[in-house]
Amino acid sequence: MTNIIRAEFLKSKRTMSSKLIFAFPIISLVMALVFTSGMTNAYAESAWNWWYTLLLPGMIAIVSYLSLMREKKNGYYNIKTLPIEKRYLMLGKIAHLGILVLVSNVVLFAGAVLGGIFLTTSVPVIGAAITVIALTIVQLWQIPLFLFLSEKFGMVVELIVCLFITVLGINVAPSGKWFLFVSAVPMRVVTPLLHVLPNGMRAQAGDPLLSASVILPGILISLAWFVILTYLYLNWFEKREVK
User: Fold this and answer.
1) Helices 2-12 and 56-73: angle between axes, nearest 10 degrees
2) Long-range contacts, stretch 112-115, CB < 8 angstroms, 24+ apart
3) Is the pTM of this model over 0.90?
4) Are 209 and 188 in contact (CB under 8 A)?
5) Angle of helix 56-73 versus helix 142-152 axis, rounded to 10
6) Which of 12, 46, 136, 167 is at a distance of 20 to 30 A from 201, taking alpha carbons?
7) How many angstroms separate the first and last alpha carbons of the chain?
8) What is the pLDDT of residue 234?
9) Looking at residue 124, what DSSP letter applies?
10) What is the distance of C-alpha 229 from the center of its chain?
């Protein structure tokens, strides 16, 4: 599996995907700088909010599409010719995309912390560091979903679905039904870590959304969705290739 992941990095070297994982977090940081100009304790809050509610899901959708299109352009030649089960090759691609998500989260974290030093912020650094890991885990389920949508319907439908489930998650996250919608989990999990509500406002002391009791259940729910969606996608892809 390590060699498969390494091969994915080689294939994506100097491609648009390798640039987007840095470009998207930078866009979030720039947007925060523009929209919080002259405000105190708002820069990192805004950067993180733009990131996990909009730009990160969009980046995952686009990078997933581009990764799959590289294979589709050459007729899945690499996958068909290698003496390895197709499901393991695609599982390596999913793992590679997961690492790219982690890298993007680290870039956002570094920029938000650095900007917060000069522009002031109330986001706890330790909480933000934990968010890097937690946010990566709770977004993994989107990778097999977007790979399937990219292959089956194309980029336009994929982005529409991405926008729909993201908006749904934002609206449901503050409610008691958040655990029923996996797209609401990221917003709910990061709130007690960043002290930032899904609407971008700072959470006030005593706000029930600051309860850290949702973090572990949220991570477990997301991992369950990731395992199920990955299993379904790999089975679908393998049967599709046989046809």
Assistant:
1) 90
2) 112/29, 112/32, 112/43, 112/44, 112/47, 112/48, 113/44, 115/29, 115/32, 115/33, 115/43, 115/44, 115/47
3) yes
4) yes
5) 50
6) 136
7) 25
8) 92
9) -
10) 15
What stretches of the chain show up as alpha helix (H) in DSSP?
2-12, 16-35, 43-50, 56-73, 77-81, 86-119, 125-139, 142-152, 155-172, 185-194, 215-242
What does the pLDDT read at residue 141? 97
Residue 170, token pair as written in the block: 């934002």
In sequence order, the 6+-apart residues with CB closer than 8 A to the CB of 87 are 234, 235, 237, 238
Rounded Cα distance between 224 and 69, Å, is: 27
Tens digit of each residue's pLDDT (9 = 90 or more) over 86-140: 777 888 899 999 999 999 999 999 999 998 888 878 889 999 999 999 999 999 9
Token pair of 5 as six digits: 């992941």
Whole-angstrom CA distances from 10 to 6, 46, 93, 150 are 6, 34, 12, 22
- 141-165 average pLDDT score: 95
The residue length of the chain stands at 243
Chain centre to alpha carbon of residue 107: 13
CB under 8 Å to 155, separation ≥6 — which residues? 61, 62, 65
Q: Is residue 64 exposed (0-12), middle (13-18) or buried (19+ Cβ within 10 Å)?
A: buried
